[in-house]
Amino acid sequence: MGAGPVGENIADRAVQGGLSVAIVECELVGGECSYWACMPTKALLRPAHALAAARRVPGAREAIIGDLDVDAAFAFRDGAAAQWDDSGQVGWLEGADITLVRGHGRLAGERTVEVERDGGRVTLTARHAVAVATGSVPVVPDVPGLATASPWTNREAISTSSVPTRLAVIGGGVVASEFATMFAALGSDVTVLVRGDGLLGSLEPFAGERVAAALTEAGADVRTGTSATEVVRAAATGPATLTLTDGSTLEVDEILVATGRRPTTDDIGLDTVGLESGQTLTTDDTLRVLGPDHAPIAWLYAVGDVNGRALLTHQGKYQARAAGDVIAARATGATVDDGPWGAHVATADHAAVPSVVFTDPEVATVGLTAERARAEHRPVRVVDYDLGWIAGATVLAEDYQGQARFVVDTERHVVLGVTFVGQDVAELLQAATVAVVGEVPLHRLWHAVPAYPTLGEIWLRLLETLGRDTATAPTS
């Protein structure tokens, strides 16, 4: 149920494992990521990133003779979203031998899904399993007048063909930060209303601080400890007035709500299998749904945003590979590899989730923050390093601004978490992920020689900061 990237990957792996698969989708095949999230948002952010990067390099800076071409940027976004045409994705399903059933699917008892389509109904009965991969939808806060003021969510914001003169962004997380960066670059007068103390509150504090500073420099107004208490909008296309917690008012042309997401489980028939409508579907590590008695339901799987483990496309696809493989293994009587880091589990969801915030500067992170590591009573040492001191940074940009942090387990001598903030740091993340997932000992990391001059030299500088004693294998 659900033909986004997660559902597609479950289906593909199950087919490769020898099963027949039907996939149910009521919107576009390819899902949120392909048309309203990952792909078009990153494409629309990219022109501004490239222009800003060029302006940081003498010689390239002088060659710039104009400003960002908004229409061309929108056209680039449209291409990344395949013009909101899913025929290519449908063709992929056909080539992968996956049956597409268009319509709204609902569970209708054990191993049964009813699909409502074109005024009729089709009943699908699975021999082995049903996987729920219906994703998530934005949450609109219960602020008087907000819901009736036609606020934007990520969908309206990324598919717009015009740039609002004045934009209020409600929220302080990843979506809020990326869209604030995007529309400030496109020419909007952006005001960000952050209820908490700062942006990106779940990450290392310096990440949100640097992003907020960059947004301010770009002309945005970032207001922390502030939220809307009322919204008034006389017409859907007219200006809106927000009353704020300090009693002041803010008039804007559009309001973007980016205050989180909830699982799309409120109309998929959960009640027919003893579950509560609208709930997050808690799972075991092989992605089987846990029932009211906390025991796994043998035939029902929940993968991606609906299980609340990690609301990231790449993490959902990781879960999907495990789920599709284990469904096939259980169906065919093959061995199930469900131990820690086994082929049929999503162990990385717990402490090794990589993510990138595509602001300018970028934020790339994997593993535990220092705060979380200490909350888990890990013996940690935190090492910070200015990325601008790296030789690779000096040839990448004039006055490169950035920061790196390692969170190290001082007893086990491994890296628990890494955070990078700066231009192009997303490309540093996979090496950090390998170090965290693989629990590569510090004394072995000394032998992973970084190419010179690249940003990757940060690994050597952090090891040097930790000290030469990390170059020798512990004797214990």
From TrEMBL:
Keywords from the UniProt entry: FAD, Flavoprotein, NAD, Nucleotide-binding
Cofactor binding notes: Binds 1 FAD per subunit.
Chain sites annotated for binding NAD(+): 171-178, 260, 305
GO molecular function, one term: dihydrolipoyl dehydrogenase (NADH) activity
Organism whose genome encodes this protein: Serinibacter arcticus
SUPFAM superfamilies, per database record: FAD/NAD(P)-binding domain (SSF51905), FAD/NAD-linked reductases, dimerisation (C-terminal) domain (SSF55424)
FAD/NAD(P)-binding domain sequence ranges: 2-315
Amino-acid positions noted as binding FAD in the UniProt annotation, renumbered to this chain: 42, 105, 134-136
Residues in the signal sequence: none
All copies of domain Pyridine nucleotide-disulphide oxidoreductase dimerisation, residue ranges: 353-459
Cofactor(s), by name: FAD
Cysteine pairings via disulfide bonds: 33-38
One Pfam family it belongs to: Pyr_redox_dim
RNA-binding among keywords: no
InterPro entries with a match to the protein in the record: Class-I_Pyr_Nuc-Dis_Oxidored (IPR050151), FAD/NAD-bd_sf (IPR036188), FAD/NAD-binding_dom (IPR023753), FAD/NAD-linked_Rdtase_dimer_sf (IPR016156), Pyr_nuc-diS_OxRdtase (IPR001100), Pyr_nucl-diS_OxRdtase_dimer (IPR004099)
Family: Belongs to the class-I pyridine nucleotide-disulfide oxidoreductase family.
Name of the protein in question: Pyridine nucleotide-disulfide oxidoreductase
UniProt-listed GO biological process terms: 2-oxoglutarate metabolic process
